[in-house]
Design goal:
The N and C termini lie far apart (64 Å). The protein is built from 6 helices and 7 strands. With 152 residues, it is α/β, with parallel strands linked by helices. It is globular. The protein has one domain: Glutaredoxin. Strand 4 and strand 5 form a beta hairpin.
């Protein structure tokens, strides 16, 4: 077997091993359009994480809070998880309308002129029961807020 072929097989095996250790409980994040569709189909609320790429606090939430063993199962079992970066000019579909993400955030957060980052929103489309939590939360705080929202 040629030396290049051996190297290719070696790197393939190493890659497969690394990817096989991915946490099976990790949160499955969806796009807004996909998340809305799944939530409607499964009749589940949506957990929306509003972030921007340059935000240190957003990165902390993503890396420390949403990877917490006390938070991941609650989110996976009870919500469809969606990430929204309002700086990205993207659209979603609602009924027959096409709306920009910023317009959607305005609908999700009525009465708020702006939503800060990071923010976590619990959203039930049909019942209009939205809870907005601005800023960084620790895993325990997020878990308590999830449990409170689910009891409604």
């Amino acid at each position: 077997m040629p030396n290049n072929m051996k190297k290719a097989i070696f790197f393939l095996l190493i890659s497969l091993l690394l990817f096989s250790f991915k946490d099976p409980d990790a949160i499955k994040w969806h796009s807004l359009t996909e998340g809305l569709e799944i939530a409607r189909h499964e009749n589940k609320p949506i957990l929306i994480f509003v972030y921007v790429n340059w935000c240190d606090k957003c990165q902390r939430m993503d890396k420390k809070v949403f990877t917490s063993k006390e938070v991941m199962p609650l989110i996976n079992e009870n919500f469809i998880a969606v990430k929204i970066n309002p700086e990205v000019d993207s659209v979603y579909f609602k009924s027959d309308k096409v709306l920009k993400r910023k317009v959607f955030l305005g609908e999700v957060t009525p009465g708020h002129l702006a939503i800060s980052v990071p923010s976590t929103v619990f959203y039930r489309e049909k019942e209009d029961e939205n809870v907005i939590m601005n800023g960084v939360q620790d895993p325990t705080e997020l878990k308590e807020n999830i449990e409170k929202f689910l009891k409604k």
